Amino acid sequence: QAVDRMKAGLRSFERYVPAGVVRRLVASGKAAEFGADRRELSIFVSDIEGFTSIAETMEDDRLVDWLRVYLDHITGVVEDCSGTVDKFMGDGVLAFFNAPEAVPDHVARACRAALACQAMPRHSQPDAMPVPVTRIGLGLGHVLVGNMGSTTRFGYTVIGDMVNLTSRLEALNKVYGTRIMATAEFRDAAGPGLEWRTLDRVAVAGRKGGVTVCELLGETGGTDPDTMAARDRYETALTQYHAREFEPAA
Q1: In Å, how far from its chain's centre is CA 192?
Q2: CA-CA distances (angstroms) from residue 148 to 185, 190, 220, 240?
């Protein structure tokens, strides 16, 4: 009976804390300790487009059920790509790749997770409810990851400048009409097999210099030819614009 109660407690614990963290903690046989390490992670931040308007038109129980199905999809995709879901922030999700376990190709996996999150099947929603449109920000950098919080209560989470920047990129999708936005450094580290569009160079409050941002379009060979042609025209115009050749850019 004691073992059964322990198993039930651990299963419940995994619903509040990333499963990988729970397994490592149980395997170590030690109590969780306060502290964090600095590691290079791929950061993933997502949000539902127009969530406030959607929530206002839905009854409470239907909204909870609709959101559960959506978050099940996001969580499943991230975990299938070896990522860790840090927390839910209302309809938003903060996740990261390369912790607690090392994932050598974590940047590419984060890209594929972002693309898969956009492919939520329509039939998955209950009672023909609308399929959420997801905006995602992706960033790469060294951040603090570990057990952080207060003396009496802490969680396994990440903090750092790149986490903040990635959150801003997610929101910036709204300005550019895009779905997945990343830094140029993230794009360069992702490796081959993916198609990108260079969007712009933007100013970010609190950071020196500008940040080049890119849109993840899809996988090589699986992206619509019209989209690829539009990408090429856009990037040509952007190069001319930065060279102050405004007429041909327009």
Answers
A1: 20
A2: 27, 29, 39, 47
Q: For the segment 162-199, what is each residue's pLDDT rounded down to a tens digit?
A: 999 999 999 999 999 999 999 999 999 999 999 999 99
What is the per-residue pLDDT for 128? 64
For 37, phi and psi rounded to 5 degrees?
Answer: -120, 155
Query: Are 140 and 185 a contacting pair, CB within 8 Å?
Result: yes
Residue 176 and residue 169 in contact, taking contact as beta carbons nearer than 8 Å: no
Residue 237 backbone zone (phi > 0: left; psi -120 to 50: alpha; other: beta): alpha
Q: Is the pLDDT of residue 33 over 70?
A: no
Helices then strands, each counted (H, E), the chain = 9, 8
pLDDT digits (tens, 9 = 90+) for 104-125: 999 999 999 999 999 876 555 6
14 by Cβ neighbours in 10 Å (0-12 / 13-18 / 19+) ranks as middle
Q: Write out the two tokens for 140.
A: 């790469």
Q: Is the distance from CB of 145 to CB of 96 less than 8 angstroms?
A: yes
Are 43 and 158 contacting, i.e. CB atoms less than 8 angstroms apart? yes
Distance separating alpha carbons of residues 138 and 185, to the nearest angstrom: 10
Query: Which one, of 168, 148, 171, 172, lies nearest residue 159 by Cα?
Result: 148
Whether residue 196 contacts residue 215, with contact meaning beta carbons closer than 8 Å, is answered with: yes
* Neighbouring C-beta atoms of residue 35, cutoff 10 Å: 10
How many Å apart are CA 111 and CA 73, to the nearest integer?
16
Per the structure block, which two tokens stand in for 70?
A: 């959506």
